[in-house]
Design a protein that fits this description.
This protein has 22 helices and 21 strands. By secondary structure, it is α+β, with helices and mostly antiparallel strands.
Length: 681
């Protein structure tokens, strides 16, 4: 759904029509007051309306003709509409996303489990937090919840736009389900985790509509700065009155108002809200729900990025790459023992052992496991295996667990195995030690597969000034090897939840902003502590509530994209502010000489554009001031193209392009408009 819209036109016909309507609705002073710059423009536009009506009624003839005043009023009014349109079109894009989301929130029948086990069918709106419902193949999940029993394949395309089904199961970090998604196979029992009207979809809709969007700290600071500039130009325009009186120049109210509107930062004032809304919209189009605009902004200033190794830096599934039997053990017999211990092992590692055994020529049909008892892996034993019908016991697992088991039975731990374990760990692999009847018979090497292109992405982040930190439960040797191979700057080995928290706090105490991604309940404290916490949509409810962003695609590398979106938002705001202020300075030096050149001939030399007359100069400037806003709307919505270069290089680039460009554009634009306007004056 969302990804289909990523390349959609910035100005679909339906959104433009609705935004044009909202441009007039937003003229309400109570709405305009939230944007001080444009509110001031609205006030002086009203004053210009009074002057226009006065001139039409035959008032003071020295204030210009009715036609000229009317034209100035219309241009000022269009300036307001263009600024409102910029904000409205940005909001409309978010509301269009919300409308699409609403389609997935329709009333859905729910099979609620009552006391005593009885199942009744009720509407999804009747489900309350703590209720339990059952979903079977073909059912639409009626509410957000956590799977407490079962496993199912689920179609989440209604939320994420992806058609590939995903597996959700009880008891892990992939237990969360979202209302509106569809069960494709099997049966699950789910406990409702939200109250009616507070589901994840409800929150998403409220967020993307942007109706109650609060200004971010950066926006507030910039608004204060722009208000300061406005006060400066109030003083500047005020000083022109005594200068005009001294020189004998007649300056009309229309001229004063036009000059004032041209000089205050109306360009960025008109686009500021649109830039912030568009930043959240770009995150949404990347399938990331942000709980505030501040989170997107903060992502742009991130100094440190914590990433899980598994699934982020590596493919996610370790693969068996080599069998190492100890001296005196036949390799074929060792491989057979490894396969018998793995035939019923449904983990990716277990399946890869079977696959590697096949490649080594061991035929599965030659292995007899009938009547055997499979031993599943547990966190306590750190091993798994099989008890064969003839009494043979085969175990495979962590070297320390198998070593204790073997030495506990009175057997010696071979030095050869200790060397193999150290060698495999040093090469970034994971050693699985195998024993038969408590005698160690060899080692299986598992290797993490580094994701293609991940080194380039980390280098890209390094150029942005972001430090990358890999978080893993592996031993320090393995962690060091993977970190060096992937190109991360630091790593946390044998990481526990408190280790992540402590690392984040340490970085923050040194004045740094930290981001991390997680999906489990044990990640919740760190997600809450991080300045930017991105939770997986497939993760637990605790993780989603703790983070300030939710990734609908469940893609751990999305954090890198979020950082780029945040930096693009800050860049867009900074570059357009630079352009706007440069515009104001250029317009001042373009208009003032033309305004006084008749009374003060010496100023004619400064009229480098040779504007036709004071009237045409003022009118040309105010028209340029109005039309530049809609011209920049696409840039505000799309964002300035981001390149991963240093901050100083970025500043130089933006000053060159948007600073110099902001000075040059008014001279060219005002001159061209003056050439047309002079035909009528």
């Amino acid at each position: 759904m969302m990804k289909e819209n990523r390349s959609a036109s910035l100005f679909p016909k339906e959104l433009v029509i609705e935004s044009l309507k909202q441009s007039f609705v937003k003229l309400d002073p109570r709405t305009m007051f939230r944007n001080p710059i444009m509110f001031i423009v609205e006030v002086v536009t009203f004053v210009m309306l009074v002057v226009t009506v006065w001139s039409a009624a035959g008032g003071d003839a020295t204030q210009g003709s009715f036609g000229y005043n009317m034209l100035v009023f219309m241009v000022l009014f269009l300036t307001l509409l263009f600024a409102n349109f910029a904000e409205a079109i940005a909001e409309a894009r978010g509301k269009a996303q919300a409308d699409s989301l609403r389609k997935t929130r329709e009333e859905t029948p729910a099979k609620r489990v009552e006391a005593g086990g009885k199942i009744t069918t009720v509407s999804s709106s009747q489900l309350k937090k703590g209720d339990i419902f059952i979903c079977e193949a073909g059912d639409t999940i009626p509410s957000d919840g956590e799977i407490i029993e079962g496993l199912a394949s689920i179609d989440e395309s209604a939320i994420t736009g992806e058609s590939a089904p995903v597996i959700r199961e009880a008891g892990g970090d992939k237990s969360s389900v979202t209302g509106g998604t569809k069960v494709l196979s099997d049966q699950i029992r789910v406990v409702v985790t939200t109250q009616p009207g507070e589901s994840f979809l409800d929150k998403m809709i409220a967020l993307v509509e942007g109706a109650s969007r609060k200004k971010t700290p950066n926006e507030i600071a910039l608004t204060i700065l722009l208000a300061g500039f406005t006060l400066v130009f109030v003083v500047v325009c005020g000083t022109l009155k005594p200068l005009a009186d001294y020189s004998g120049t007649q300056i009309t109210i229309a001229a004063f108002i036009s000059l004032f509107v041209c000089l205050i930062p109306t360009t960025i004032g008109g686009l500021l809200s649109a830039i912030g809304i568009a930043g959240m919209d770009r995150a949404l189009r990347a399938n990331v729900i942000t709980k505030s605009g501040k989170a997107v902004e903060t992502a742009g200033d991130i100094d440190t990025l914590l990433l899980d190794k598994t699934g982020t830096i590596t493919i996610g599934n370790r693969k068996a790459t080599q069998f190492y039997p100890v001296a005196g053990v036949d390799e074929h017999s060792f491989v057979q023992a490894c396969l018998m211990a793995s035939l019923s092992d449904e983990t990716p590692e277990g399946k890869s052992i079977v696959e590697l055994g096949r490649e080594r020529g061991v035929r599965i049909r030659d292995l007899s496991t009938s009547g055997s008892r499979m031993i599943k892996f547990t966190a306590e034993t750190k091993c798994s295996g099989v008890d064969l019908k003839d009494g043979t016991r085969i175990r495979k697992g962590a070297f320390d667990a198998i070593r204790r088991m073997s030495e506990g039975a009175g057997n010696k731990y071979p030095e050869e195995v200790a060397g193999l374990v150290e060698k495999i760990s040093g090469n970034g692999g994971t050693p699985l030690v195998v024993s038969q009847d408590d005698f160690i018979i060899g080692v299986i090497e598992l290797q993490d597969i580094i994701k293609p292109g991940i080194q380039e992405r980390f280098e890209r982040l390094r150029k942005m000034g972001v430090k990358t930190v890999m978080v893993t439960g592996d031993n320090p040797l393995t962690a060091k090897y993977i970190a060096e191979k992937a190109g991360v700057d630091d790593f946390i080995a044998e990481a526990k939840p408190e280790d992540k928290m402590n690392y984040i706090k340490k970085e923050q105490e040194s004045g740094k902003l930290v981001a991390m991604m997680g999906d489990g309940t044990n990640d919740a404290p760190a997600l809450a502590q991080a300045n930017v916490g991105v939770a997986m949509n497939s993760g637990t409810q605790a993780a989603k509530e703790a983070g300030n962003m939710v990734d609908l695609d469940n893609d751990p590398t999305k954090l890198i994209e979020i950082v780029e979106i945040g930096k693009q938002l800050l860049m867009t705001r900074g570059t357009l502010t630079t352009f706007s202020i440069a515009n104001d300075v250029a317009k001042y030096f373009a208009i003032v000489p033309a305004l006084f050149m008749v009374a003060i001939p010496q100023l004619a030399a400064l009229n480098i554009m040779h504007l036709h007359s004071p009237e045409s100069a003022i009118l040309s400037a105010v028209i340029f001031n109005a039309v530049i806003i809609p011209i920049l709307i696409p840039l505000a919505l799309r964002g300035v193209a981001y390149k991963p270069i240093g901050a100083s290089a970025l500043l130089r680039r933006n000053l060159l392009i948007y600073g110099v460009g902001g000075v040059i554009a008014p001279f060219i634009g005002i001159k061209l408009i003056d050439m047309v306007v002079s035909l009528f004056f």
